[in-house]
Design a protein that fits this description.
Distance between the termini: 54 Å
Number of helices: 14
Helix content: 25-40%
Number of strands: 23
Bound molecules: zinc ion
Strand order of the largest sheet: 7-4-6-5-11
Radius of gyration: 28 Å
Strand content: 15-25%
Largest sheet: 5 strands, antiparallel
Oligomer: single chain
Length: 586
């Protein structure tokens, strides 16, 4: 890693070696203050005086006070972080210019005004919860400079380069609104970075896409696990701030995202080659693979050099074979933007079509399908032509939204319910039962559509925010929508919830006056007025998504109805076929 500026050796053992730097901390904070007048500083998982873990957090608009507050925790906590994007300044009044050692409310995605920065977090691949070795740490920093260099060739303005203590980070300036579209865009950017630059040693963290992301407060010490000679704690710091910080344009971001292969390549004429032996093929045409890695349940072969231009060296060009067998070629250079898998084959096998070298593919494409195939196609056709939406969630679980009698049902594509719905549907249309082979092959295509063409919806359990309202899942495919104006039971529920099989439905009474919530106290043996209020507030707060919820602990004699009260709360908030969990036996 010679020639890479800013490399530091970790300093094991001695506490002196990793003292926080007041100047570095002040520099980092003043940098972020330029973009956000109010910052949240957060210390998750702090263990003060060896006690339970707590979150320390506070909001600051005063640089000196922020630095002083942070310095107090020097070397005592696992890591100190700061918000990346501009925070709603109103949050300052939550905890103003001080750190609360028992913080309950931290910044959420909706508290972010806009997206000012794209964080590319480069992490050595290693077991969780330990610091990196010097070699791993150096590899990550070298990778950061490599990414900066390649991106600069693509016209990207220089990012801030940071040493996160264990890895490296690049902070690119962007200017996007804070909305769902931007979240997807940022997510895809990270995927693209990982696709192009990730290797066996370092990966790009794909999880840091959320608007309220926090980053290491550079200048503080990263303390993951114990500090050892091999895996020491290190001070994080900003290595380089460019003289001029310019935003990456939407077009440039789009160009980056375009490297992610789309599954259009499924079509036979675009390179879909079931059973194609790509490794043998590459060998035949002298394509050297520099590294092989798994990619989205397929395999990615990163090439030693680009077949179209030998000056495009590793890791710029690669061939991917997806799980379905589809083949994708891409090279991360503008001059290669047009070159897909098809183009690569045309270049290397110019006489391919004339030779008729693909009898299997041709036969497949031209039909002559058996009865099973036509049944399967009919099943897929029903799903595609009817009012069914196929989609996936953030962990690529696959679902279908089906409309039955005016209500939207969300079924997992893995569930028996979906399979039986599909056969029932086929029977009603044709009067015959589909074979199980046909159902299975139809299902595999339906799953592929849900995974690759379907939208992504993040499903909540029981309650969530949607469209400025709180929605509460009644577990019978209807939901309650609560706004400041009132509430009502909605039949046409958007795709919001995952209803688990053990969840029982509840049936709220419409038109009950709101003050009646107090009536529940008649059934709750709490005497103290203050505690009654606390109980009511807790109960109501359980219906508010995305906030920290209290865990009620009841004190009382044996037989004072403590469990009964807990059971009652559960029946109200989240009725379920499962009964209360008992603590494990001692
Ligand atoms: Zn190329």
């Amino acid at each position: 890693v010679a020639g890479v500026p800013g490399l530091q050796k970790g300093s094991p053992g001695s506490k002196k070696g990793f003292k926080m730097s007041r100047d570095d901390i002040a520099n980092t904070l003043s940098f972020f203050f330029k973009y956000s007048p109010v910052l949240e500083i957060r210390i998750p998982k702090a263990k003060l005086n060896g006690k339970y873990e707590t979150t320390i957090a506070g909001y600051f608009n005063n640089l000196d006070k922020a630095v002083q507050s942070v310095i107090k925790y020097d070397t005592k906590v696992p890591g100190i972080y700061v918000t990346l994007n501009p925070v709603n300044p109103a949050l300052l009044s939550r905890c103003s210019n001080r750190l609360d050692e028992n913080s309950k409310l931290t910044t959420s995605d909706k508290d972010i005004l806009k997206r000012t920065f794209l964080l590319v977090d480069i992490d050595p691949i290693r077991p969780a919860g330990i610091s990196s070795t010097d070699a791993e740490h150096n590899a990550a920093i070298a990778k950061a400079y490599h990414i900066r260099e390649i991106m600069a060739k693509h016209g990207w303005a220089d990012p801030v380069v940071c040493d996160s203590g264990n890895g490296a980070s690049l902070i690119y300036h962007i200017d996007l609104p804070n909305n769902e579209e931007s979240t997807q865009t940022v997510k895809k950017c990270l995927e693209a970075f990982d696709l192009v630059f990730g290797d066996k040693e370092v990966g790009i963290d794909l999880t840091v896409f959320n608007a309220s992301r926090i980053v290491k407060l550079y200048g503080t010490v990263a303390k993951k696990g114990d500090s050892t000679a091999e895996r020491p704690h290190r001070e994080s710091k900003i290595l380089e701030v460019p003289a001029e910080i310019n935003p990456i344009s939407v077009d440039q971001i789009g160009e980056l995202i375009a490297v992610i292969p789309v599954e259009e390549e499924h079509k036979p004429d675009k390179g879909y080659s079931n059973g194609f032996d790509i490794q043998a093929w590459m060998k035949q045409y002298d394509i050297t693979v520099a590294s092989t890695k798994p990619w989205n349940s397929g395999t990615m072969y990163v090439l030693d050099k680009c077949p179209f231009d030998a000056s495009h060296r590793y890791p710029d060009a690669s061939i991917i074979q997806t799980q379905s067998g589809a083949l994708v070629f891409h090279c991360f250079h503008n001059s290669c933007a047009k070159h897909d898998w098809r183009a690569l084959r045309d270049k290397l096998e110019p006489n391919r079509e004339k030779r008729g070298s693909e009898p299997r593919e041709k036969q497949k494409a031209s039909g002559s399908k058996g009865n099973g195939d036509s049944q399967a196609s009919a099943l897929i056709h029903y799903v595609e032509s009817s009012d069914v939406e196929l989609f996936h969630d953030d962990v690529l679980k696959l679902y279908a939204r089906i409309k039955i009698n005016g209500v939207n049902k969300i079924l997992s594509l893995k569930s028996q319910t979906f399979g039986s719905w599909l056969s029932g549907r086929y029977y009603r249309e044709t009067g015959t039962a589909p074979g199980s082979d046909a159902i299975n092959s139809a299902l595999s295509v339906i799953k592929a559509i849900a995974e690759h063409d379907g939208k992504q919806y993040n499903l909540s359990v029981r309650c969530c925010w949607h469209d400025g309202a709180i929605w509460y899942d009644l577990a019978d495919w209807t939901a309650v929508k609560i706004t400041a104006q009132g509430w009502g039971i909605m039949k046409d529920v958007p795709i919001l919830f995952m209803t688990l099989s053990h969840m029982k439905s509840s049936s709220p009474t419409q038109n009950a006056p709101i003050a009646e919530v107090k009536k529940i106290l008649e059934f709750i043996p709490i005497k103290d007025e203050g505690e009654k209020l606390l109980f009511l507030v807790a109960l109501v707060s359980y219906f508010i998504p995305d906030i920290a919820h209290v865990c009620l602990v009841f004190y009382g004699e044996k037989g004072a109805a403590k469990s009964t009260v807990n059971a009652l709360i559960k029946r109200l908030v989240d009725p379920s076929a499962l009964s209360l969990l008992s603590p494990a036996p001692r």
